Amino acid sequence: MLLRVSSTAARLTSVLAAAGLLLAVVACQKEAETPANDFTALPLVAPAPANNAGSPEKIALGRALFWDPVLSGGKDVSCASCHHPANGYADAIDLSIGENGQGLGTSRHFRTPNNIPFVKRNSPTVLNAAFNGLNAAGGIDPATAPMFWDLRTQSLEAQSLLPVASLEEMRGHQYAEGVALDSVVARLRRIPAYAAMFSAAFSEATPITATNIGKAIACFERTLVATDSRFDQYLRGNQAALSTQEIAGLNAFVASGCAKCHSGPMLSDYQLHTLGVADNGKNAATDAGPNGNYAFRTPSLRNVALTAPYMHSGTLNTLAAVLDFYDPGRGNGTPNPHVSAGQRDPLFPGRVNNKQAIIDFLGTLTASTYDRTVPTAVPSGLPVGGNIR
After folding, report:
1. What is the value of pTM for the model shown?
2. Which residue of 91, 191, 312, 341 is most buried, as measured by CB atoms within 10 A?
3. Which of 334, 331, 339 is nearest to 289 (CA)?
4. Is domain 230-363 annotated with CATH 2.170.120.30?
5. E strands in 60-130
6. Phi first, then psi: what are they for 200, rounded to 5°?
7. CB 105 within 8 A of CB 236
């Protein structure tokens, strides 16, 4: 009897050991497939600051303002001119053409005569910009969300107003920078349809203000989210959402050091880094960034396949070119003569392996479901989107 119990115990011990080994192998395989990182799926809804809760009335007003060229000095350019759904809510060109521009995407050009410069930097997408600053724990303060390549302002509310006062983006020469917002407010107050929409959105005695313009556009932009990418599906537990090649690309992305800066749910640390990207020759002067050291914010990689060309200067046309830029070896120079290899950020990868697999992985960051609606009319009666045809 004692012998039989011992044999049974021995067999049980053997089975448990084998099971433990199997679990260890599975765990090792899973670790190999999905590298440890702080990647997390995006929330389904973008949070709003306490002083600007969304409402259907605010969103409708913000959509109208986003598409209406009445906000520009020459009444010819809208937010949508450079952030159009046909181009992933970016503009598909290296440096944006705002005021005095004609056409959409790669066909956009300056009308003649022209005395407006190109916008200084590449136009980032506003798709998912409502998640800027989101960390791996899901924490975000929409009132302090980082914006622009140089982090010069925070929150969608503040960001949406700056182009209105910018010469090359929307202001033009029609009025001085200091009075641009007041001039736009005065225009809107003369349009009955806007008077009604602002009154419905804001319970104030004088609802048409610059602050409320920013709030309304921000509420609309918080609806421009794309959260159903295959990578999000994968992170939510659908292991079949990515192919073997794409998982290899994710591993290569991490192993090559890309994820040191392109981290978190938005694949951005929202920090400034000096990389040595080439200046764009369309600018009259070199662009040294906010601190004079050629450091610019890490862009989000969400929907990156939709938003070429790349980098702050728009000088890299393809994802393959971007990966080649990161793969020169640390001892070589940079494309920017003002930045030496030694001045590059210590986090600069220096070597990138399995580039095609990384490109395949980056394709899984593209979402398929987001608002692509183009209004049929805007309250001012001007052409929808401005001179984009």
Report:
1. 0.90
2. 91
3. 339
4. no
5. 101-102, 109-110
6. -70, -30
7. no
